[in-house]
Amino acid sequence: MERLLVVNADDFGQSRSVNRGIVAAHERGIVTSASLMVRWPAAAEAAGYARQQPELSVGLHLDLGEWVYRDGTWVALYEVVPVGDGDAVAGEVAAQMEAFQQLMGCDPTHIDSHQHVHRLEPARSVVIDVARRLGVPLRGCTEQVGHCGDFYGQTLEGNPFPDGISVERLVRIIETLHNGCTELGCHPGEGDDLTTMYRRERSQEVQVLCDPRVREAVRTAGVQLCSFRALRATMVACAH
Distances in Å between the alpha carbon of 82 and those of 20, 100, 148, 162? Predict the structure, then answer.
């Protein structure tokens, strides 16, 4: 079996610095797809760029809130709706999907969520239903696409972990990919205009994603870079 790799940049549209980093990692690096945060000020800028880039697949990065680790526990930095309220979650998911369609002029090629909130109920059931109706992959819930979150510059408690986003780390991930399709998550960005727990690591991610040693590792390992749009076309063709 082939080894296909979708390199997906989260948080597209969250800020202009994030947009710049994702653009750089797409044009000069190995990023093939991005996930758009429609609620944020730079979303329109991100969508404008993406509409002119047919090789960049764009999905919906659902934003229900963000949590930070402080004094031994996770606390909300912000919460869009109460994540335990199924009706509120469903309404917000529908609103963000509509906003995406207005910004992009099309449906998303894939769906995921900020800090993986969609993996927990009631969001899980809500978002699975949306992804099934659209026929698009949902991170961690689509059998044909594995998810790898090993390229990340912090520990589970939010402490810096620069080795997690080194060239050596990314090369090792590429070399040890399983057969089939894997989505590799990343969070590139240039600058520091965010109030979030993951900031300074973003510029290092850009450098690594654009490092020629990484692309050489892709070639040497026989891995095929793939976007979510191309993957969907392949899945549809195989189904027929």
Answer: 31, 21, 28, 33
